[in-house]
Design goal:
- The chain has eight helices and 21 strands.
- Helices cover 30% and strands 33% of the residues.
- The chain has helices at 5-9, 15-24, 31-36, 52-59, 97-106, 109-138, 177-195, 207-217, and strands spanning 42-44, 49-51, 64-65, 69-73, 80-85, 92-96, 142-149, 152-160, 165-173, 201-205, 225-227, 232-234, 238-242, 246-247, 256-257, 263-268, 273-277, 293-300, 303-310, 313-317, 323-330.
- It is elongated, with a radius of gyration of 24 Å.
- The strands form six sheets. The protein has a seven-stranded mixed sheet with strand order 9-21-16-10-13-12-11. Strands 1-17-20 form a three-stranded mixed sheet. A three-stranded antiparallel sheet has the order 2-5-4.
- By secondary structure, the protein is α+β, with helices and mostly antiparallel strands.
Length: 331
């Protein structure tokens, strides 16, 4: 008679137990989520779907959904609300019967708990890494994330979140401190005209723009620059940071840069948008909206269990509160 391994280990994978274990672990490195979606900008939805209205309230735009959208009547009338079905992350890890039998034979609760923690951490970290990639891509205003089916990529989940406001190209002279200061003020003014007031505006720039600003602000002594862990503060007012991060989608051979090398993107960190977590499609999780859930499932050939992780994140940047500009430098 086959051993019900999932049943023996099931008590470690209840919704409450998984949440407790994850909360006790050290946090994974998630710089993009920490920067743009701190705790106050993470929203858990009780449904596996999210409405267009929910996203519109955050992004300022009506999202164009190319896959996974459905319309549902709200009541007996003709009123219809468009719902978006998000395909989540579902990583897994196979554990052989031999390894499980060794754990069971030891009968050591502490060893089993350590084993559970180790494997939960592995799945959580894979989902955290994937969520970081999704956030990076969402900054473009369009999510086009590969969807896997039967172990291979079968298509993409595509959601257009809108575009940042476009500001006319700026042409600056290299090393000109006065022109740089004027550009910083004009850039902020134009941003506010198009995107509205910003409580914490940050001018994120590509690698070329940042290098030119550094060269300009170090060309003379005693220029008004304060170097910070994230970039620099210029003239006591302008927060400028490099954002030369890149990401690689599953199945892709090349990395994609978040910003162009000559791009300037102003984002209000007080109003960046929201990271939604939708309810995961698993009854054992009680269909809860959790950043991470995992459960064991029996496998027969080969014998063992498959640990499956679940998460359904959707980063929705407030694109209409952003602006972008191309910045060129000449001698």
């Amino acid at each position: 008679m086959a051993i019900n391994y999932a049943g023996k280990f099931g008590k470690y994978f209840t919704q409450a137990k998984v949440a407790d274990i994850i909360s006790s672990m050290s946090k994974p490195e998630t710089p993009m989520k920490n920067l743009f979606f701190p705790a106050g900008h993470q929203k858990q939805k009780s449904s596996a779907f999210i409405t267009v209205e929910d996203i519109q309230r955050v992004t300022g735009s009506i999202p164009l959904v190319r896959r996974g959208s459905r319309s549902y009547p709200l009541d007996g009338t003709s009123t219809v609300r468009k719902m978006i079905e998000v395909d989540g992350f579902i990583p897994s890890k196979f554990i052989s019967a031999a390894e499980l039998n060794t754990l069971i034979s030891l009968g050591d609760e502490q060893s089993i708990s350590a084993w559970v923690n180790e494997n939960l951490e592995y799945l959580r970290d894979r989902i955290s890494e994937s969520t970081e990639t999704l956030i990076c891509q969402a900054l473009s205003g369009k999510i086009a994330y590969p969807i896997a089916s039967d172990g291979s990529i079968s298509g993409k989940e595509e959601i257009d979140l809108g575009n940042p406001h476009a500001i006319d190209t700026a042409n600056l002279k290299k090393g000109d401190v006065g022109q740089l200061r004027k550009w910083l003020e004009d850039r902020l003014t134009e941003h506010r005209k198009k995107a509205g007031a910003a409580a914490t505006p940050v001018n994120f720039v590509g690698s070329t723009v940042y290098a030119e600003i550094v060269d300009t602000m170090t060309s003379k002594d005693n220029l008004p620059v304060v170097w910070t862990d994230t970039g620099m503060k210029l003239f006591g007012k302008y927060d400028v940071r490099p954002l030369d991060t890149s990401y690689t989608l599953p199945g892709a051979n090349q990395a994609t840069s978040i910003l162009g090398t000559n791009e300037s993107r102003i984002i209000d960190l007080a109003n960046p948008g929201d990271l939604f977590y939708l309810a995961v499609d698993d009854l054992d999780s009680k269909l809860a909206a959790m950043p991470f859930y995992a459960k064991p499932v029996n496998c027969e050939d080969p014998s063992g269990i498959k640990l499956i992780g679940y998460s359904k994140p959707l980063p929705a940047f407030a694109m209409k509160r952003q602006s972008k500009q191309t910045v060129n430098f000449t001698n």
